């Protein structure tokens, strides 16, 4: 009885400390937060047209964590470790696999945040997403902004894992990509494949790199390998990975990838980084480049905040769009998995740019 009481007290202390540090952590690890930080400061603004839900989300997440005593206490100290890397035909690293990338309690936090998101934003933040062109799909819960506000320690870990992969891959030197802490979070998604049997091949077009965490034990499902096709790979050779639970795969977003046929429960947590700031709350669930272009320009041109996208103080330190963001057409280095509708001239330009590296 005494041990049980001590365990409960210990968990309450952990949760209280997390609450106290939430604001500071979110500010520290989300420097590209100018379009949503007022939500955290004012503890309001999470309205998708069906009412204000900031307090509801906060209560839901905290209650869920308080019920996760065993998971909180079971976390073991594990150091993230580079497991493997994959290079393309031009000797550029396109993928880094990292073991011990996320802890059991962080996995629980992700699942609870996803459940609370579906509870209060069932229409605007959940999508039974079908890939009509390539087949398959997944049930996707969009958690960007909510992740930074309510699970900042998880987002801090996402940044750390991205930085570890970025350094190992040499993406700064090789491809001149911005480091993770200088990128914004485009989307954070909890993915469940229960209703789908595969995920068709696609590319995360417009993002720089994707951080994908394995939440499920691979022994619980058959098939479901993550596959990747590096650009210019001889004979279009595919590479397959079946990530271990708590590991992460960090890869160049515009590289063609998908998931093979599967049976059984498969849960993943994916995050995409891009050159813009964190996508604002009132953007679409997975904001597009053109949408952010419009948003930034609108912020610079007007002080009318009727849409409540941001507050006046957010405009005082807006970096000039033209100076700080280059026209983004794939990677600065030209590395990107081009789309079929690209013209021959565009493809030749990309290939010529790659040849210069």
UniProtKB/TrEMBL annotation:
Bias type Acidic residues, positions: 338-349
UniProt keywords, alphabetically: Signal
Source organism of this protein record: Skeletonema marinoi
Residues of the signal peptide: 1-22
Region of interest called Disordered, as start-end residue ranges on this chain: 338-357
Name of the protein described by the UniProt record: Fe2OG dioxygenase domain-containing protein
Origin: domain of life: Eukaryota
The keyword Signal belongs to this UniProt entry's keyword annotation: yes
């Amino acid at each position: 009885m005494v041990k049980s009481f001590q365990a409960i007290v210990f968990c309450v202390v952990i949760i209280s400390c997390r609450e106290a540090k939430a604001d500071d952590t979110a500010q520290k690890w989300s420097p590209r937060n100018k379009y949503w930080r007022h939500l955290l400061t004012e503890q309001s603004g999470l309205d998708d047209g069906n009412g204000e839900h900031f307090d509801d989300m906060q209560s839901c997440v905290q209650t869920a964590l308080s019920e996760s005593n065993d998971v909180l206490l079971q976390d073991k100290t594990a150091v993230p470790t580079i497991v493997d890397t994959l290079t393309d035909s031009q000797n550029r690293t396109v993928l880094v696999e990292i073991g011990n990338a996320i802890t059991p309690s962080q996995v629980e936090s992700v699942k609870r945040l996803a459940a609370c998101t579906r509870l209060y934003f069932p229409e605007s933040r959940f999508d039974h997403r079908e890939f009509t062109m390539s087949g398959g799909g997944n049930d996707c819960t969009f958690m960007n902004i909510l992740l930074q506000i309510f699970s900042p320690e998880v987002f801090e870990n996402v940044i750390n894992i991205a930085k570890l992969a970025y350094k190992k891959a040499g993406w700064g030197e090789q491809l001149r990509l911005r480091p993770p802490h200088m990128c914004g979070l485009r989307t954070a998604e909890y993915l469940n494949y229960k209703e789908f049997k595969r995920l068709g091949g696609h590319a995360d077009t417009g993002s720089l790199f994707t951080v994908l965490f394995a939440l499920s034990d691979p022994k619980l499902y058959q098939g479901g390998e993550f596959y990747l096709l590096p650009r210019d790979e001889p004979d279009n050779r595919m590479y397959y990975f079946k990530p271990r639970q708590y590991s992460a795969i960090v890869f160049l977003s515009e590289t063609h990838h998908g998931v093979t046929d599967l049976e059984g429960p498969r849960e993943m947590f994916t995050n995409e980084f891009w050159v813009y700031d964190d996508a604002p709350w009132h953007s679409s669930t997975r904001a597009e480049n053109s949408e952010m272009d419009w948003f930034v320009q609108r912020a610079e041109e007007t002080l009318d905040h009727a849409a409540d996208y941001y507050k006046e103080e957010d405009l005082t330190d807006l970096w000039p769009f033209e100076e700080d963001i280059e026209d983004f057409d794939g990677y600065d280095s030209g590395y990107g998995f081009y789309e079929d509708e690209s013209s021959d001239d565009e493809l030749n330009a990309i290939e010529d740019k790659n040849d210069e590296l």
